[in-house]
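Quick one - first record:
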Amino acid sequence: MNTTAASLIGFAGWLVLLTFAVAFFRVYITATTAKAINSYSPDGSDLQGFGRRLTRARDNCFETLPVFVAIVVAAELLGQMQALHILAPWVLVSRIAQSMTHMISTSPPAIVVRALLLTVQLGIYVYWIIALLAGRG
């Protein structure tokens, strides 16, 4: 398996793991409080603290996963997958680090760190798009 496929699968796996964590957290809250299982807001706005941060960290994966998938599909169709292999693991690492930072804190320094990690991902995507359009794969 190449690094791009492993990174894409890792990203999807991370999203699934966070989704399970959100579900288990909500079941825990329902079991320990009077909150009805069918009363949760999809965006986590009805939760406080870690529950809200966990939900938002999971939802933030939707920001860039479709872009990652589209670039991988395009690279495959163009026969330029090798253009992605070196940086693909950095997309996964920066996404996991961004999610972890989000779950740990929403302090101003943590927000700056999250923004920097998102910028790493977006920068890689822009680089890939330019490279694929230029045929430099």
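second record:
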Amino acid sequence: MSTNTTDERSRSQSANPDESGKGLSAVIALLGLWMIIQAIMFDITATQFGNDVIIGGLLFAVGAYNYSRRSNERVGSIAAASVAALLGLWLIAAPFMFGADAGFTEATNDLAFWNDVIVGLLAFALGAYSAYEAREERKEAENRRTAT
């Protein structure tokens, strides 16, 4: 009985024949790459460098994971998209929480400060929308499964 339930759940999550949402996931992954590249390019402190590289790596990982799922005609992961949104919130909040010239994410220039905020806004919006889309795709797949 549990195998049937697992098979049904697997089929309901794998119904994404048009690979929708793949572009959103790619942009999230590219934002992660940008965070890593800008950490190398901009004059920032060691703590901000570490923060940007870690967050960038995580954004890249969740974006690439969802891209891979959606490329294989599977529904995107709501959890991965939600993680991207939460990482975006962190990027938005960190410069303001700790200040532009003091604390954990000390920025030595305004460009690095505002880069984190803008990338954070984009990551939050795209991650939240991607999670919403994945939820809707899952509902549609479930409806198709029960209709047959």
